[in-house]
Amino acid sequence: MGCRGCGTSSYDNVNDSVCMDLSRSRTIAVADPTPITDLNVFSTIYTDATNFSINGTILVVNASTSTGSVAVMINENTATQFTVAPGESEARTFGNINSIQVAVTSFPLNQTGTFSAGFQISFTLNYKF
């Protein structure tokens, strides 16, 4: 237990982790470009509302029963997208996460039709205050 006036001026580390089971579906009339440029198709699942620099690792597992790929967009100082095909998983580490967004796109890429994905996304958030 802390006592008032007994603190130090050093930084403390915070490490949070989040895991979500999500499913999305989408009808694509005109094939998505790679990377996806229509930002309205993305759903935001995390936004950094602090002034801290957040780093972390994002893991996406796309269920093998999915018919669509999962597109993940990470906004740092610039946006980075990566795509996870059905039955695959991918982990990536980022240095200054401002937001994490997800969308469903076609599998294989650049196709039209209705696609769905059941997927898990886990991420760690690490920062100092």
Structural overview:
The chain is mainly beta and 129 residues long. The chain has one domain: Sandwich (Jelly Rolls). Helix content is 0%, strand content 56%. The chain contains no helices and 8 strands. It has strands at 13-28, 43-47, 56-62, 68-75, 79-84, 89-94, 99-106, 113-128. The strands form 2 sheets. A 4-stranded antiparallel beta sheet has the order 1-8-3-6, with no helix packed on it. A 4-stranded antiparallel beta sheet has the order 2-7-4-5, with no helix packed on it. A hairpin with a 3-residue loop joins strand 4 and strand 5 (79-84). The model has no long low-confidence stretch (mean pLDDT 90).
- List low-confidence stretches: none
**Helix-strand category:** mainly beta
Estimate the helix proportion, in percent.
under 10%
Largest sheet entry: 4 strands, antiparallel
Features:
mainly beta, four-stranded antiparallel beta sheet, elongated, 8 strands, Jelly Rolls, 129 residues
Brief rundown of the structure:
This protein has strands at 13-28, 43-47, 56-62, 68-75, 79-84, 89-94, 99-106, 113-128.
Strand and helix layout:
Elements: E1 13-28, E2 43-47, E3 56-62, E4 68-75, E5 79-84, E6 89-94, E7 99-106, E8 113-128
Antiparallel strand pairs: 1-8, 2-7, 3-6, 3-8, 4-5, 4-7
